[in-house]
Specification:
By secondary structure, the protein is of the alpha/beta class. The chain has three domains: 3-105 and 229-303, FAD/NAD(P)-binding domain (3-Layer(bba) Sandwich), CATH 3.50.50.60; 108-225, 3-Layer(bba) Sandwich (FAD/NAD(P)-binding domain); 323-389, FAD/NAD-linked reductase, C-terminal dimerisation domain (Enolase-like, domain 1, 2-Layer Sandwich), CATH 3.30.390.30. 22% of the residues lie in helices and 29% in strands. The strands form seven sheets. The protein has a five-stranded parallel sheet, with helices on one face. A hairpin with a 2-residue loop joins β5 and β6. Bound molecules: flavin-adenine dinucleotide. Residues 7-13, 32-35, 42-43, 45-46, 75-76, 101-104, 121-122, 148, 232, 235, 266-268, 283-286, 288, 317-319 line the site of flavin-adenine dinucleotide. Residues 316-399 form the Reductase C-terminal domain. Keywords: FAD, Flavoprotein, Oxidoreductase. This is FAD-dependent oxidoreductase. It comes from Streptomyces ziwulingensis. Residues 3-288 form the FAD/NAD(P)-binding domain.
Length: 399
């Protein structure tokens, strides 16, 4: 192909453009992004950037040297796959190959649109709006005890804010982790001086407070909503490109969409995992790093008639919350056995999930070596000895 157009200038889009060059693609590469800023990395937004210990997180990529044309402040509005044309706020853009990398957008709390003092945390602009909130040491209410809520609460406590986290479920990270694993994490909030209210649903937000459905009023100088994210794909409606139940682009094992010459990668797309036997929609950084290499390989390979490379990663992510470094690898729903290494009330422990004695996932709190060793064992599908596994003093290794 002569012209590759990548929509979305986040991690996945930038990595796709870079990987194309790394893999020797010599045609034109155009990267289109809705945000006005130089492409930047998102994880620091809820960490160093929020606390003001880092000013920015722009990717260290020399686009000019790589002959990658970037068009910022340009929003994709639709695509006509039959004509190989992308419609944007700056006009029509023809392509030979199109890569969808529009990421995800945060879910809003119903009825809070336009209410001052209600924040989301997804973009650099969101983080810039939240920095003065932390500096003023407001009483903040965080809605949602997920990854973003926990990281924001951590930063807000460090900045000296009074923090209340309200969570509709009975525990933090209810959507991500089983109850027995998330339960010990509830204590982290109190330890950090934050109040965690579970079974707490927000009925409405008023100026200066939120009101829960049991009538409780919680004072709030600012409200930060972290209740999840959805693929940013509304603009694809009517394009004929297949979307799934969460609005995600349905990619195949080679990250191709249902439309010819259109690929999808990162937070906006799901793919069939051969490893786990189900379709995965991953909203984590490592997926936006690894997926693009497959996309680039398949764009380059399609031209020479090579069989498409299959994307079948062991998912990985990390989170930094309440002074802890949490890492997760794999996908635990397929597990038949859960084993602990170390005491979950202590500072460092690991949970291992096995399926028929093979490690399928692991969550490590303050045990990066477990993660590194476990990730390899998961990838290799190695058979483990469950009795040896539970001794935290032994390295994680095959039976
Ligand atoms: P995005 O980063 O969302 O980038 C997509 C880009 O496309 C955006 O810039 C968007 O403006 C643009 N776009 C959207 N629609 C259009 C359109 N129609 N036209 C043009 N452009 C468009 N993951 C971890 O593993 N560990 C962490 O600690 C971690 N921390 C995080 C902290 C925060 C605050 C956030 C928000 C996310 C964090 N993540 C973390 C998740 C990680 O950042 C994402 O998985 C990753 O950014 C996904 O990359 P992406 O390129 O697919 O999507």
């Amino acid at each position: 192909p002569a012209r590759v157009v990548v929509v979305g200038a986040g991690m996945a889009g930038v990595q796709t453009a870079v990987a194309l060059r790394e893999q020797g693609f010599a045609g034109s590469v155009t990267l289109i992004g809705a945000e006005p800023h130089q492409p930047y990395d998102r994880p620091p937004l809820s960490k160093a950037i929020l606390l003001g210990t880092a000013e920015g997180s722009a990717f260290d990529v020399d686009f000019e040297a790589l002959a990658i044309e970037i068009r910022l402040g340009c929003e994709a509005l639709g695509v006509r796959p039959g004509d190989h044309v992308l419609e944007t706020s700056a006009g029509a853009v023809p392509y030979d190959v199109l890569v969808l990398a529009t990421g995800a957008g945060p879910v809003r709390l119903p009825g809070t649109e336009g209410i001052p003092g209600v924040h989301l945390l997804r973009t650099l602009d969101d983080a810039a709006r939240l920095r003065p909130v932390l500096a003023r040491q407001h009483e903040v209410v965080v809605v949602g005890a997920g990854w973003i809520g926990a990281e924001f609460a951590t930063a807000a406590r460090e900045a000296g804010c009074a923090v209340t986290v309200v969570e509709a479920a009975d525990r933090p990270l209810a959507g991500a982790l089983p109850a027995e694993v998330a339960a010990p994490m509830s204590d982290w909030y109190a330890e950090a001086g934050a109040v965690l209210r579970t079974h707490a649903r927000v009925a409405r937000v008023e100026p200066g407070a939120i009101v829960l459905d049991d009538g409780t009023r919680v004072p709030a100088g600012a409200v930060v909503v972290g209740i999840g994210a959805r693929p940013a794909t509304a603009w694809l409606t009517g394009s004929g490109i297949g979307l799934g139940a969460h609005g995600e682009v349905l990619a195949d094992a080679g990250l191709r969409t249902s439309a010819p010459d259109v690929y999808a990668v990162g937070d906006c797309a799901s793919f069939p995992s051969g490893r786990y036997g189900e379709r995965l929609l991953v909203h984590h950084w490592d997926n936006a790093l690894q997926g693009p290499r497959t996309v680039a390989a398949n764009i380059v390979g399609a031209a020479t008639g090579e069989a498409p490379e299959v994307y079948d990663p062991v998912p990985y992510f990390w989170s930094e919350q309440f002074g802890r470094f949490i890492q997760y690898a794999g996908h635990h729903p397929a597990a038949d056995t859960t084993l602990w290494r170390g005491d979950p009330s202590g500072p460092a422990w690991t949970v291992c999930w096995l399926h028929e004695d093979r490690l399928v996932a692991l969550l490590a709190v303050g045990r990066p070596r477990d993660l590194a060793q476990g990730r390899r064992l998961i990838a290799a599908g190695t058979r483990m000895d469950p009795r040896l596994l539970t001794d935290p003093a032994r390295p994680l290794k095959a039976a």
